[in-house]
Write a structure and sequence with these properties.
Strand content: under 5%
Radius of gyration: 25 Å
Mean pLDDT: 75
Order of helices and strands: HHHHH
Number of strands: 0
Largest sheet: none
Helix content: 40-55%
Low-confidence stretches: 27-31
């Protein structure tokens, strides 16, 4: 049974002060967009020297492996190493790239997937 709208309006007695909120939120957004802002940058973007760290320190092989991690054609990668995932895809006849296997067998890269510990 639906309740009349009068009862619901009386139940939720919240009043919002939109005039004061819009002023404070605009000033915060404006401060964040300026270069002299006091708002701290996320730690991932700040290098040891204090400047923004926008370059990627991963090599070409790691980039290839990240593409392999993100390619769902070879099945999920959560909870298993990259080589285990490659071998499973090979057993299932999904034809994973041989380049991935050779990179992983050398042992110069991280065996865990891009999502390991993040999801």
């Amino acid at each position: 049974m639906a309740t009349p709208s009068k009862n619901i309006e009386g139940f939720y007695k919240q009043k919002k002060n939109t005039a004061s909120k819009s002023k404070s939120s605009n000033s915060t957004k404006q401060a964040a967009a300026t270069s002299g802002s006091n708002i701290a940058q996320p730690p991932a973007l700040v290098s040891r020297g204090g400047s923004l760290d926008l370059r990627d320190d991963t090599g070409e092989e790691e980039q290839v492996l990240r593409q392999f991690d993100m390619n769902m054609a070879f099945g999920p990668c959560i909870g298993m190493t990259r080589i285990d995932r490659w071998e499973r895809a090979q057993r299932l006849g999904l034809n994973p790239p041989k380049e991935i296997q050779s990179i992983l067998k050398r042992g110069e890269v991280k065996p865990q997937s891009l999502f390991d510990g993040r999801v």
